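This section describes the prediction task in plain terms. A model, or a person checking by hand, is given the sequence of a single protein chain and must write out its three-dimensional structure as a string of tokens. No templates, partner chains or ligands are provided. The sample shown here is typical of the held-out split.
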Amino acid sequence: MDDQTGSPELFLFLASTVHDMKNSISVLSGTLENLLVQAQPGQEPQGYPQMAHMLYQTRRLNDNLMQLLALYKDLGKPDYPFDPRPVQLGELVQQVADQGRVLLQSKQITLDLEYDPEAIGTFDEDLVIGVLAHAINNAVRYTRDRIRLAITESDGWLEFRVEDNGMGFPPSMLEAGAAVGKGVNFLTNSSGLGLFFSSEVARMHRHRQRNGSIALENGGLLGGGCFILRLP
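The expected answer:
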């Protein structure tokens, strides 16, 4: 029997299956969001914390499936619909904040926003939103009760920072972030898919022989973990 493991038909089937799974999880996530929104402050149902945790987990799954689909399409190939355009930072931040609003409120986490609403950057908006949304979802795991999204521009670089006030990233995750930045594939690590995806998105952004990059560190203004995306 011929080995069909690497056949295009199999990859297409797997991509279609992942897409269907993503759609189903999106429906579940939307249902959970509606249930959480309907809960009145001070009158939350008994299972409210469990529903909030379920929403967090469905967001993680949705992120992973979205990243798998993007990597399947092979980010960086000439035929990938990479679309960098001028984007107003105020609109970008609003979209990211709206995506995380219900999850953060349900877990009583404050999202601090620091940016120039009139500033404009040139990047692929959908991909960058995906990276930032994943970073915020990941910060939910580590923070005590506060997350900070800050965007600054300096020396031709646009820097996005997602920070939290938790205990910081464990050494294994800091090592994974450093290794991904050097081109090492950490897909076997539990946190590796998101880091690999974010690194690929950053690498696609080029300007005057400079490439984007990501970094993980501990500290920042909130004293916890910091995810950093830098784009030229």
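For orientation: The mean pLDDT is 86.
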